[in-house]
Specification:
Elements: E1 4-5, E2 14-24, E3 30-40, E4 49-51, E5 57-63, E6 66-67, E7 71-73, E8 76-79, E9 89-97, E10 107-111, E11 114-118, E12 137-147, E13 153-156, E14 159-165, E15 170-176, E16 181-182, E17 188-191, E18 194-201, E19 207-214, H1 223-240, E20 248-254, E21 261-262, E22 267-271, H2 284-300, E23 308-309, H3 315-334, H4 337-360, E24 371-372, H5 381-398, H6 400-414, E25 418-419, H7 421-430, H8 436-439, H9 441-444, H10 446-449, E26 455-463, E27 466-474, E28 489-496, E29 502-510, E30 514-519, E31 527-530, E32 539-542, H11 546-555, H12 559-579, H13 588-598, H14 605-612, H15 617-622, H16 629-646, H17 648-658, H18 668-691, H19 695-706, H20 710-723, H21 728-738, H22 743-754, H23 763-771, H24 781-792, H25 796-799, H26 805-818, H27 822-829, H28 842-854, H29 861-871
Parallel strand pairs: 2-12, 19-20, 20-22, 23-25, 26-32
Antiparallel strand pairs: 1-24, 2-3, 3-9, 4-8, 5-6, 5-9, 7-8, 10-11, 12-15, 12-16, 13-17, 14-15, 18-19, 21-22, 26-27, 27-30, 28-29, 28-31
Bound molecules: (3S)-3,7-diaminoheptanoic acid and zinc ion (ZN).
Function: Aminopeptidase N is involved in the degradation of intracellular peptides generated by protein breakdown during normal growth as well as in response to nutrient starvation.
Protein name: Aminopeptidase N
Cofactor: Zn(2+)
Length: 872
C-alpha cells in the first residue's frame, strides 16, 4: 500500500521462461496448477524469489518436484531456499480462486455464467502467483477443463493444439501461444458462446481465421465488428507493413467489463458496447466507436504485444502510440479530406474537454507518470489522448514518410522486448537524422516528463507591409512540478488575405520561450490562422477580433481552424454572459455566420453539425477562474434557445433536407446527414418550447416511433427530452418497452435521463428513483456508468446543486461502489477533480463530501489515491 516511483525501477531478479497452466474451471472454486521454468537473472545480485499474489488460496508449492519452505510477505509468496546457480528449475504452484465472487472484474471472473479474464495491469496475480510485471515474458501453454454442457467453448491465447472429452461430462482444450508475452496479456474464456468467423488471406499471402464470439442471441450484431477487424488487419499491413502474426485471431464480447476492451494476445476480450451493433440497436456513433476500438485492440498486437512496456510508467509507449494509430486508421477509412478533418475535430474535442481539465487538476501527471499508488488510476486521457498527440507531433516533426521509417526502426530494434518511451522517441529520431525531432530530441522529450497544458500566446503587428506574429510559450505549475522548461511546439500557421485567399503559410517549430514569424511584402493586413489542424496540444491565447474570427470561419483553408473560429465566437459570447448579467442577446453577425454555415452549399453535413454545436459546458468552465456550473448551464441553454429561435426557418430547412438517407448505412456521409438532421430537430423542439408550437414536438414523436434505425430514433427521443416536452414521458416509456431485452439500449435509456437538462433540480430525484428500477444493477459497470456517471460526471448543471444533494449522492455511490469494484469507484471519484474552482457554497460542500469519503477507514488504494490528491 505504498507509492511506487518510476525512479525505483529494478530489473527482475528471476526470469520465468515457460508457464504451463492447467485450470479446472468452477465458478465457486477454480483450481489452478501453474508449472513454471524459472531461472535467476545473472545480472542481479542473488536474492529470494518474491511472487505477486492477490486473493489466492495457496495449496502447494514444489521446487524441482520437492516440497519447499516458503513464507508470506503481505500478499507475496517468498521462496528463499532455491537451487544455487543460474540453471533453470521447475516451480510448481497449486492455488484456488473464486471467480463467481470476483466483483472487481480483475483476474478470473464470471459473467452471465461464462468465465472471462482481465489481467492488465495486475490481474494475473489474482489467478496464480507470478512475477506479475510486464518485463517478465514467458511462453504459455494452457489447458482448460470444464463441464462440457455449461462451457462448450474453451479459449485461450494462441493455437488450439488438443481437445477432447473427460470423465463426468467434462471436456478439455489445450492452447499453445507461439509468442512470448508478459502476464498482463494472458486470457481465457469459457462458456456458451457462438461465433461469426471469416477466413482471410493477408497481402503477404498468409491465411488467418478471424472469429467474433458472443452470446447466442447476439450473432446478428457482429457483422460490423468483423468488418472492422478485417479492415484493421489490412490497414496495418498497408500503412505500416505490420502483418498479423497469428493463425487465429479471436474477439470475445462480455457485458461485464471494467473498460472498453483488452488486447490479450490472439484473444481480445471486449465490452459488448464495442462489439454489438445493428441498425436497430446502435447509433452511428456506436458504429464509429466499434470501428476504432476494434482497430485499437488489433493494432496493439504490434504496438503493445510484440513490443511492450518495461514497467507501467511507460504505459503511454503502447497506449499513446496505439491511440494515434487508431485515429489514423479511422481517418484513412473516412477517406476524403473533409471527413478526415471531422474525425480530427472530434478527437481534439475529447482532448480539450477531458484531458485539459485533467492536466489542470489534482490528478495532473506527465504522459510518463513519476509515481502512482494504484496503476489503474493512470489509464487516463493524459496517457492515452495526450500521449497520442505526442506521437502525432513526432510524425509532424519528421514527416509522414519519416514517421513510417521511424516506426519500422522501432519494431526492428525492439521486437520481443519490453522498452521505454525514451526507446520509442530515440528510434523515430534515429531513423530521421537532421529532422527537427533528431535535432531537439532531449527537449522534445519534455512532453513525456512535464505535466500541464502549455499556453502559446500570440500577438501580431503589421507595419510597412510586414506582418509579425510573436509566439510566447509558458506552462502553468502542476502538483509536484512548480517550474517548467520550454517545450518543442510545432505551430502550423497560415495567413488569410483580405480577399479570403491564402497569402503565406508554414510550420514554426518553437524551441524557445519566444519566437517571431515574419512575412514581408504584404499589401494589406492578413488574418493569422494559427495552430492549424491543432498541431500541438496547447492552449492558443490569441485575442482575435470578431471580424478576424468571422473571416477565418468563412475563408480558412484549414477546416480545423474554421471550426475553431466558430468555437471561439461561441465561447466569447458565453463568457461575456457568464461574467456579465447572465443574459446576452446574440448579435446578428454571429447568427448570420451560423446561418451561412448551416446553409452552405459545399460543406459536409458532419462538419456543419460540429460548427453549429456550442462548446461544451466543461470546456467553457475551464476558461473561468471560478465556476458556477448552473450559471454556465443556464447561459449555454439560453444561447442555444436563441440559436434555435433565430434560425428556426433554417433549422426546418436543414431537417427536411437531411432527414432522408435511403437504406441505413453507417458510412460517414449518411451519418453526417443524420447528425445534422438530429441537431436541427433538437433546435426545432427547443424553439417550440418558447413559441408554444406543438408541430415540431409532434413531428419528433412521430419520427421517434417510425424511425428505421437507432440513430434517428434516439435523436428524436433526445430532442424531446432535451427540450423538456411533455411527449418525452410517453416516448421514454415506449422506448423502454421496445428494448426491454437489449442491455446496451437500456444503458442509453438510463444515460439520457441522467444527463437531461436540469429544470428546478428535477434530475437528481429521477436518478434516485432509477436506482430502484428493476433494470438497474450497480455491479454491472456499463449500467453504473450509464446512470451514475452520466449524472455526476456528465451533467454539471444538475450535479452541482447549492443544497449539496448531488455531492452527498456522489459520496454514497463512491463508497458503495468501492466495496464492489474499486476501479469503477475511483473513476466516479474523479467527478470532483475540479472542485477547487467551484463558487461558494458548492466549493465548501464539495470539500466536505470528498473529506467524508477520504475519512472512510478501509478505502481501496484506487479511491484513496484520487480523494487524497483532490484534497492535497
Ligand atoms: N490496455 C487496455 C486497458 C487496460 C486497463 C486496465 N485498467 C485496453 C486498451 O487500452 O486497449
Ligand atoms: Zn490501448
Amino acid at each position: 500500500n505504498a507509492v511506487i516511483y518510476r525512479a525505483d525501477y529494478q530489473p527482475p531478479a528471476y526470469w520465468i521462461d515457460t508457464v504451463d497452466l492447467c485450470f479446472d474451471l468452477d465458478p465457486a472454486k477454480t483450481r489452478v496448477l501453474n508449472k513454471m521454468k524459472v531461472r535467476r537473472n545473472p545480472q542481479v545480485a542473488p536474492q529470494p524469489l518474491k511472487l505477486d499474489g492477490d486473493e489466492l488460496n495457496l495449496a502447494r508449492v514444489l521446487v524441482n518436484g520437492q516440497g519447499t519452505s516458503f513464507k508470506m510477505e503481505g500478499d507475496r509468496l517468498v521462496l528463499e531456499n532455491l537451487p544455487e546457480g543460474d540453471a533453470p528449475f521447475d516451480l510448481e504452484i497449486f492455488t484456488t480462486c473464486a471467480p463467481a465472487k470476483n466483483s472487481k472484474l480483475m483476474g478470473l471472473y464470471t459473467s452471465n455464467d461464462s468465465f472471462f479474464t482481465q489481467c492488465e495491469a495486475e490481474g494475473f496475480r489474482r489467478i496464480t502467483y507470478f512475477l506479475d510485471r510486464p518485463d517478465v515474458m514467458a511462453s504459455y501453454t494452457v489447458t482448460l477443463r470444464a463441464d462440457k454442457q455449461k462451457y462448450p467453448v474453451l479459449l485461450s491465447n494462441g493455437n488450439l493444439v488438443d481437445q477432447g472429452d473427460l470423465d463426468d461430462g467434462r471436456h478439455f482444450a489445450k492452447w499453445v501461444d507461439p509468442h512470448r508475452k508478459p502476464s498482463y496479456l494472458f486470457a481465457l474464456v469459457a462458456g456458451q458462446l457462438v461465433c461469426r468467423e471469416q477466413k482471410i488471406t493477408s497481402r503477404s499471402g498468409n491465411d488467418h481465421l478471424l472469429q467474433v464470439y458472443v452470446r447466442a442471441g447476439d450473432l446478428d450484431k457482429t457483422e460490423h465488428a468483423m468488418n472492422s477487424l478485417i479492415a484493421s488487419v489490412a490497414w496495418d499491413e498497408a500503412r505500416f507493413g505490420l502483418p498479423l502474426d497469428l493463425e487465429r485471431f479471436m474477439i470475445v464480447a462480455t457485458s461485464d467489463f471494467n473498460m472498453g476492451a483488452m488486447e490479450n494476445k490472439g484473444l481480445n476480450i471486449f465490452n459488448t458496447k464495442y462489439v454489438l451493433a445493428s441498425q436497430a440497436t446502435a447509433t452511428d456513433t456506436d458504429f464509429m466507436n466499434i470501428e476504432s476500438v476494434v482497430g485499437h485492440e488489433y493494432f496493439h498486437n504490434w504496438s503493445g504485444n510484440r513490443v511492450t512496456c518495461r514497467d507501467w510508467f511507460q504505459l503511454s509507449l503502447k497506449e499513446g502510440l496505439t491511440v494515434f494509430r487508431d485515429q489514423e486508421f479511422s481517418q484513412d477509412l473516412a477517406g476524403e479530406a473533409s471527413a478526415r478533418a471531422v474525425k480530427r475535430i472530434e478527437d481534439v474535442r475529447v482532448l480539450r474537454t477531458a484531458q485539459f481539465p485533467e492536466d489542470a487538476g489534482p490528478m495532473a501527471h506527465p504522459v510518463r507518470p513519476e509515481q502512482y499508488l494504484e496503476i489503474n488510476n493512470f489509464y487516463t486521457v493524459t496517457v492515452y489522448e495526450k500521449g497520442a498527440e505526442v506521437v502525432r507531433m513526432q510524425q509532424t516533426l519528421v514527416g509522414r514518410e519519416g514517421f513510417e521509417k521511424g516506426l519500422a526502426q522501432y519494431f526492428q530494434r525492439h521486437d520481443g522486448q519490453a522498452v521505454t518511451c525514451d526507446d520509442f522517441a530515440q528510434a523515430i529520431a534515429d531513423a530521421n537524422p537532421g529532422s527537427h525531432l533528431a535535432n531537439n530530441l532531449e527537449q522534445f522529450k519534455r512532453w513525456y516528463s512535464q505535466a500541464g497544458t502549455p499556453r502559446v500566446k500570440a500577438t501580431t503587428r503589421f507595419e510597412n507591409g510586414t506582418y509579425e506574429i510573436t509566439l510566447s510559450q509558458s506552462c502553468p505549475p502542476t502538483p509536484g512540478q512548480a517550474a517548467k522548461e520550454p517545450f518543442v511546439i510545432p505551430v502550423a500557421w497560415g495567413l488569410v488575405g483580405a480577399d479570403g485567399r491564402e497569402v503565406a503559410g508554414g510550420m514554426q517549430v518553437m524551441t524557445q520561450a519566444t519566437e517571431t514569424i515574419r512575412v514581408d511584402g504584404l499589401a494589406s493586413e492578413p488574418v493569422p490562422s494559427l495552430l492549424r489542424g491543432f498541431s500541438a496540444p496547447v492552449v492558443l491565447e490569441w485575442d482575435a477580433t470578431d471580424a478576424q474570427l468571422l473571416a477565418l470561419l468563412e475563408h480558412d483553408t484549414d477546416p480545423f481552424n474554421r471550426w475553431e473560429a466558430a468555437q471561439r465566437l461561441g465561447v466569447r459570447r458565453m463568457l461575456d454572459a457568464i461574467r456579465g448579467s447572465g443574459a446576452i442577446t446574440l448579435d446578428d453577425a454571429y447568427l448570420q455566420a451560423m446561418r451561412s454555415i448551416l446553409r452552405h452549399p459545399k460543406l459536409d453535413a458532419a462538419f456543419k453539425e460540429l460548427v453549429l454545436t456550442l462548446p461544451a459546458e466543461t470546456y467553457v468552465s475551464e476558461q473561468l477562474d471560478e465556476v458556477d456550473p448552473q450559471r454556465v448551464h443556464a447561459v449555454r441553454e439560453s444561447l442555444r434557445e436563441q440559436l434555435a429561435s433565430a434560425l428556426a426557418g433554417d433549422w426546418a430547412w436543414a431537417y427536411e433536407e437531411h432527414k432522408e438517407n435511403g437504406a441505413y448505412r453507417p458510412d460517414h456521409v449518411s451519418a453526417g446527414r443524420r447528425a445534422l438532421a438530429g441537431l436541427a430537430l433538437t433546435h426545432l423542439c427547443i424553439a417550440a418550447r418558447s413559441s408554444g408550437d406543438t408541430v415540431w414536438p409532434g413531428k419528433a414523436y412521430q419520427r421517434f416511433k417510425d424511425a428505421s434505425n437507432m440513430t434517428d430514433r434516439f435523436n428524436a427521443l433526445s430532442a424531446l427530452v432535451v427540450s423538456g416536452h411533455e411527449l418525452s414521458r410517453p416516448a421514454l416509456d415506449r422506448f423502454h418497452g421496445m428494448f426491454r431485452g437489449e442491455a446496451l439500449v437500456l444503458d442509453k435509456w438510463f444515460a439520457l435521463q441522467a444527463g437531461a437538462p436540469d429544470r428546478g433540480g428535477n434530475v437528481l430525484p429521477v436518478v434516485r428513483s432509477l436506482m430502484q428500477h428493476p433494470d438497474f444493477n450497480l455491479r454491472n459497470p456499463n449500467r453504473a456508468r450509464s446512470l451514475i456517471f452520466s449524472y455526476c460526471s456528465a451533467n454539471p448543471g444538475a450535479f452541482h446543486r447549492a443544497d449539496a444533494a448531488g455531492y452527498v449522492f456522489w459520496g454514497d455511490r463512491v463508497l458503495e461502489l468501492d466495496g464492489v469494484n474499486p476501479q469503477v469507484a475511483a473513476r466516479l471519484a474523479r467527478a470532483m477533480d475540479r472542485w477547487r474552482k467551484l463558487a461558494e457554497p458548492m466549493r465548501s460542500a464539495a470539500r466536505e463530501a470528498i473529506a467524508r469519503v477520504a475519512a472512510k477507514p478501509d478505502l481501496s488504494n484506487d479511491v484513496r489515491e484520487v480523494v487524497t490528491r483532490a484534497l492535497a
